[in-house]
Amino acid sequence: MENIKCIYYVAVLFVHHFMSSLAMPAKNLTTDQSALLQFKTHITSDPYRLLADNWSISNPVCRWVGISCDARHGRVKTLNLSSMELGGTIPPHLGNLSFLMNLDLGDNNFHGHLPNELGQLRRLRGFSIGNNKISGVVPTWIDSLSKIHFLYLYNNSFTGTISHSLFNLTTLEVLSLRGNNIEGSISSEIGKLTNLKIFDMARNHLSGTMPWSSMGNISSLQSLSLTNNSLFGSLPNDICNRLPNLEFLSLSINGLSGQLPASLGDCSKLHTLSLSYNKFTGHIPNAIGNLIKLVHLLLSDNNLAQPSSGLFGSLPADICNHLPALQYLYLSRNVISGTIPKTINNCTALEIFDLDENRLTGEIPDEIGNLQSLQYLLLGSNGLTGIIPASIFNISTIAEIELEQNNLSGCLPSSFGQWLPNLVRLTTGENKLTGTIPNSISNASKLTFLDLSANSFSGRFPNTFGNLRLLKYLGLGENNLTTESPNAEWSFLSSLTNCRELENLYLDSNPLYGVLPLSIGNISANLQYFRASNCKIKGSLPEEIGNLHSLLVLDISRNDLNGSIPTTVGRLPNLQEYGSMGIASTRGDVYSFGVLLMETFTRKKPTDEMLAREMSLKNLVESSLPHAVTEVVDANLLRDQNTFDARVNCMLSIMDLALNCSMESPKQRINMKDALAKLKKIKLQFHKDVGAPN
Ligand SMILES: *[C@@H]1O[C@H](CO)[C@@H](O)[C@H](O)[C@H]1NC(C)=O
Ligand SMILES: *[C@@H]1O[C@H](CO)[C@@H](O)[C@H](O)[C@H]1NC(C)=O
Ligand SMILES: *[C@@H]1O[C@H](CO)[C@@H](O)[C@H](O)[C@H]1NC(C)=O
Ligand SMILES: *[C@@H]1O[C@H](CO)[C@@H](O)[C@H](O)[C@H]1NC(C)=O
Ligand SMILES: *[C@@H]1O[C@H](CO)[C@@H](O)[C@H](O)[C@H]1NC(C)=O
Ligand SMILES: *[C@@H]1O[C@H](CO)[C@@H](O)[C@H](O)[C@H]1NC(C)=O
Ligand SMILES: *[C@@H]1O[C@H](CO)[C@@H](O)[C@H](O)[C@H]1NC(C)=O
Ligand SMILES: *[C@@H]1O[C@H](CO)[C@@H](O)[C@H](O)[C@H]1NC(C)=O
Ligand SMILES: *[C@@H]1O[C@H](CO)[C@@H](O)[C@H](O)[C@H]1NC(C)=O
Ligand SMILES: *[C@@H]1O[C@H](CO)[C@@H](O)[C@H](O)[C@H]1NC(C)=O
Ligand SMILES: *[C@@H]1O[C@H](CO)[C@@H](O)[C@H](O)[C@H]1NC(C)=O
Ligand SMILES: *[C@@H]1O[C@H](CO)[C@@H](O)[C@H](O)[C@H]1NC(C)=O
């Protein structure tokens, strides 16, 4: 009897529940429609009217653009409005789309916070809101999305720390918060995400050390990117034993230190290894040769700890014999010594070979010429000797050859420009090259930057530069070049007038002799820097110089010129102040001054190669302010722990000033007088801070 009674009560309860659930507004397709229409009213910008007419009650919801419904129950399953340039906010009503499995609002202009109601989307497997302007902390309701596999939150304005609730999402395969403002350290709870394949926290403000011991439990991990944060500490030796599935590992632009782990060779699936802009030291492990799938190897700029620090030793002689897939090899700004291995031609896929600013010696192997995909050959600032192998000038794919600041000698082969249809940049400045500049240079028609300065080139100044229509920078200073006749007008200048893009023309310290022709006024209207001091020029400065409206610096000092400066010079809009025959605009000089400040206090050169070469010294400085200024300035300047804070503040002010000096647009630049005043102030403040006499 008791039993029956019990069942009875249960049944009554059931009926009651059933009744009340029927009385409640059921969520159905109408709910979906009204949620979407509510969403539409929150979309304030729809430039292509993609939703304006399409999302209307006269059409069935399941045929609306961006919507797909489940075939069985007919409810909205996918909402995908990616890349429609929509703007507006995300309303709570979206939380009513209870059958939603995929929500993709990426590549739009949505702003505001994500509403808590999105936590009701229990069936959600994929959520993408990358490339929007969403702000607020990473929501804590996210742990309600218990079926989530893909979470793309990159390139927004999320703040705060990595919410702990994320670590309960054990189904998660992709977590990308790249390009936000996330701070704090990475919790060791990360190890709970045992299905994670992609973890991308690049370009945030993470600090502290990496919880490698728990991270090592995520053996599923394929891609780990923590580029551009403020992480420190070293890599564990067994990193690759524990993460054998890694294909992509990028930890560049951090403060990581120590030696490269010996286990690296066990990451046999690795195709990208990027550890540039850190403080790693020691030899490059031979085991790198086991990474047969390696495509990108980026280890440059590991001298952040102090100058002359970084990776050292020589390149393993057989480095290329096992890396058939290698395309990018970046090792610039380390202390690599020894010679360039002759086996280099076994890296047949090589496109970028960057060993700028190291301590390489010996000759450049002829074998480099066999690299038929090479685009960048960057070997500046080393101690290389011997001739430049002619084979280099036969690589038709090559776009940049940088060999400046070495001890290279010999002549350029007479045909050297003939087979370089893609050459954009050639720098051989500060070497010991001799002979003439071959006319064949004019066959390299894509050349925009040519620096042959500070060598011992002799003979006539070629008359064929005019064929280089794209030329922006021509540096031929400090050589032994002459004109045809000591008293005639410079005929090469009329050829140069064909280079309509020319911005920098440096001819200084050559025994050119001759007279400036009137055609000087026909040089590119873009010309900003014209230096021809110490060239034994005779005659006077033609009035036509006044046509060069973009001129910032005109330096024709230390010549045998006579007469006065033509009045036309005074009308040049940017050239403000000028001396007798060394004429310079203060605004022009302030730019160089800014660069000088950066070079001096960072001990770096403005032409750093960095990750696909997109980052200049200026960008590096810009991106380091304010948090990471200590990463970029010369560490020697920060040594004194007692005055560390004052030093950091001082460096911050100086870098800020440097950036103000070197704004792209001359109008935005601070003027030289104010720059100097500011610098004096900074010095005063520093002395005040450290209690030193001024
Ligand atoms: C709405 O857009 C969808 C997808 O582009 C299209 O198939 C449908 O015909 C459109 N409906 C109307 C009424 O424009
Ligand atoms: C959304 O649509 C875009 C473009 O059609 C597509 O590339 C993307 O993969 C879709 N998103 C999802 C989650 O399916
Ligand atoms: C949908 O969600 C909104 C806000 O979260 C709520 O006010 C409303 O009652 C819901 N509508 C339906 C039909 O469920
Ligand atoms: C994120 O933004 C950067 C620039 O701000 C852009 O280069 C990058 O492609 C964006 N990332 C994605 C995945 O779209
Ligand atoms: C994570 O899940 C556990 C067990 O379900 C729960 O006790 C804990 O409160 C959750 N943590 C967070 C931060 O949600
Ligand atoms: C990682 O796994 C080891 C055993 O494999 C376990 O002892 C340890 O607790 C785990 N650590 C974390 C943080 O999950
Ligand atoms: C290239 O590599 C192969 C083995 O992979 C080796 O036999 C050959 O000697 C190498 N070539 C050079 C020039 O070192
Ligand atoms: C070039 O060689 C000279 C003399 O051998 C040496 O003093 C100088 O340091 C070398 N320069 C470079 C950049 O290696
Ligand atoms: C460069 O290529 C040309 C034309 O194919 C050829 O005649 C010449 O011998 C090559 N030079 C070198 C150094 O390989
Ligand atoms: C190089 O340039 C010269 C003169 O401009 C031209 O006659 C010649 O055909 C060019 N050679 C090649 C290989 O393009
Ligand atoms: C320049 O040429 C002159 C005459 O040919 C020669 O005496 C001088 O040594 C050369 N200077 C340099 C730096 O090569
Ligand atoms: C580093 O990140 C900051 C934002 O956090 C960004 O402004 C900067 O451009 C990034 N630097 C590089 C080199 O990507």
Layout of helices and strands:
Layout: H1 2-23, H2 29-42, E1 43-45, E2 67-69, E3 76-80, E4 87-89, E5 102-104, E6 109-112, E7 126-128, E8 133-137, E9 150-152, E10 157-159, E11 174-176, E12 183-184, E13 198-200, E14 205-209, H3 212-215, E15 223-225, E16 230-233, H4 239-242, E17 248-250, E18 255-259, E19 272-274, E20 279-283, E21 296-298, E22 311-314, E23 328-330, E24 335-338, E25 352-354, E26 359-363, E27 376-378, E28 383-386, E29 400-402, E30 407-410, E31 425-427, E32 432-433, E33 449-451, E34 458-460, E35 473-475, E36 480-482, H5 492-496, E37 504-506, E38 529-531, E39 553-555, H6 567-570, E40 582-584, H7 586-602, H8 617-624, H9 629-632, H10 644-661, H11 672-689
Parallel strand pairs: 3-5, 4-6, 5-7, 6-8, 7-9, 8-10, 9-11, 11-13, 12-14, 13-15, 14-16, 15-17, 16-18, 17-19, 18-20, 19-21, 20-22, 21-23, 22-24, 23-25, 24-26, 25-27, 26-28, 27-29, 28-30, 29-31, 30-32, 31-33, 33-35, 34-36, 35-37, 37-38, 38-39
Antiparallel strand pairs: 1-4, 2-3, 39-40
Helix pairs in contact: 7-10, 10-11
The structure holds 2-acetamido-2-deoxy-beta-D-glucopyranose (12 copies).
List keywords for this structure.
eleven-stranded parallel β-sheet; binds 2-acetamido-2-deoxy-beta-D-glucopyranose; 22-stranded mixed β-sheet; 694 residues; single chain; alpha/beta; 11 helices; Leucine-rich repeat, LRR (right-handed beta-alpha superhelix); 40 strands; 17% helix; Transferase(Phosphotransferase), domain 1; globular
